[in-house]
Amino acid sequence: MEFAVGILSKLLLSVGVLSSSWNVNEEARSNCLALKSSLQALRLENTTILDVSYPRVASRMKARGTCFSAATTIPLCRVQFNAITSDTSGIEGEVWLPDEWNARFMAFGNRGLSGCIPYDELDYGSSLKFAVVASNSGHEGDTVLPFFQNPEVLNDFSFRSIHIEAVIGKQIVEAYYGRPQDKSYYLGCSTGGRQGIKTALQYPGDFDGIIAGAPAADFNHLLHWTGMLSRYIGAPKAPSSPSFIPVESWKFIAKEVLRQCDGIDGVVDGIVDEPDACDFRPEALLCGTDVVNGKHCLTVPQVEALRKIYSPLYGVDGELLYPRYDPGAEGSPLISFALSGSFPPYTEEWLKYVVLNVTDYDIDNYALQHHVLMDTINPGGISSFDGDFSAFRDRGGKLLTYHGRADAVIPSGFSKRLYNLISRTLSMPSLDSFYRLFNVPGMDHCEDGIGASRFGQLPASKSLNDSSHNIILALVDWVENGVAPDVIIGTARSGATREHCRYPMKSMWNGSSFRCQG
Ligand SMILES: *[C@@H]1O[C@H](CO)[C@@H](O)[C@H](O)[C@H]1NC(C)=O
Ligand SMILES: *[C@@H]1O[C@H](CO)[C@@H](O)[C@H](O)[C@H]1NC(C)=O
Ligand SMILES: *[C@@H]1O[C@H](CO)[C@@H](O)[C@H](O)[C@H]1NC(C)=O
Ligand SMILES: *[C@@H]1O[C@H](CO)[C@@H](O)[C@H](O)[C@H]1NC(C)=O
Ligand SMILES: [Ca+2]
């Protein structure tokens, strides 16, 4: 009976929302407010509807306890929900349903270890007329502490929250508009990139198209690598270590990297297009016997630290754990993420709270062999480094990924490595038919940097909203019209544009412009 009432209200809603009567906003508003009782009647499994509201355009959105806020830009219906995922865990999320709907659904991921609803992304997606969903990934705050002795909360962060977003979001979309979405999409970068990769592997049916930028996948090794970088310069007691490199020194190291490698791509423009072509020699910065006061130079232990930083990280059995730091990323304000001289908090907390399950640990003892325990335990199954995308490929899924080549947090070599792992696992020399990686010269972590770094990948990286300049619309064109993007055109702060090539093509300068060559 309740189900029948739900169906009836669905039909009424669809008529109201889609009608073009003179009074459409008033009508949309009352349909929105009626959604609360129809959702209650639907009794979505394990889900409590916290509130349904029809906010004024430009009102600031924030949920209790969470860290972000953003204003809406278009009229929409806002649904706040809480989903129970186990006896000891649950997810808080929101679905935004624009009055003017493009019949598409989009879910968003998170950043860092953040348990925060990304309101700016909800606003971005809904302003493009998608019905959108995002969540706090199952915890509050940018820390590992909520996972301590709480494996179900970690499971939400590792693999479950995006799946729950998809399951609940789609039901709410259908309840409101009276029909399911035509296609469903996912957008995320960094942790959000890892969540996108994980979802394609574990829940391949959830999304028709996925954008997974600069993925923090191979998560244990990423954190381990970050910890090892900090150890090379003496963390956690860095300033008293002979190999310590103060943050200010990275400015002149960055200059030397450019002096040695900027021109390799044919253009001296402050950008190292192909960091893997840069055989940086830090010895060029050694203080000679003739060192004069004020000259920027480095000691032997400091140069040795640089050698390690610019080399791949190998494990105790000689296996590759993580690619090297990208030469060309030193100029970033994010250099201090791993190289401030402190031990990186994410790595320390990860080791303590979910690998060793202790609250206290002497991080002075942190060393290469710590990866063995991290690999063995792989908390929450978070690694997300697996090449078997066959289920996602076979259901017709499309995945776009991108990586800045001046990424000071996750080296761009990682995304090439993942591409090649998938290629080998599926015995596909090229993944063009369902998976495309765009390398972005001069872009930092997910966005920013002096390159042509804006292509619609994040709310702060808006670009022309056509499928050549906006990666979301490029994905839509691929999924819905079969038109795969050969290049993505990025826009720099200066307004200059540039075509970004898909891997393994390379960007080559022909004397007057960059061309992608394969
Ligand atoms: C609801 O939660 C229970 C227990 O946590 C779980 O077994 C069940 O699969 C959940 N249902 C859905 C639709 O997720
Ligand atoms: C894209 O931009 C044009 C011009 O600014 C605008 O008219 C159109 O509505 C936009 N499309 C979307 C989907 O936002
Ligand atoms: C820490 O707890 C997790 C989850 O209960 C467990 O899998 C892991 O083995 C524990 N770590 C150690 C070192 O015992
Ligand atoms: C370089 O590429 C551009 C763009 O395709 C083309 O117009 C130009 O003629 C090329 N220049 C040379 C020297 O090949
Ligand atoms: Ca250059």
UniProtKB/TrEMBL annotation:
Gene3D superfamilies: alpha/beta hydrolase. GO terms for molecular function: feruloyl esterase activity; metal ion binding. The keyword Hydrolase applies. It catalyses: feruloyl-polysaccharide + H2O = ferulate + polysaccharide. Residues 1-19 form the signal peptide. Keywords: Calcium, Carbohydrate metabolism, Disulfide bond, Hydrolase, Metal-binding, Polysaccharide degradation, Serine esterase, Signal, Xylan degradation. Its EC number is 3.1.1.-. It holds the Pfam family Tannase. GO terms for biological process: xylan catabolic process. Belongs to the tannase family. This is Carboxylic ester hydrolase.
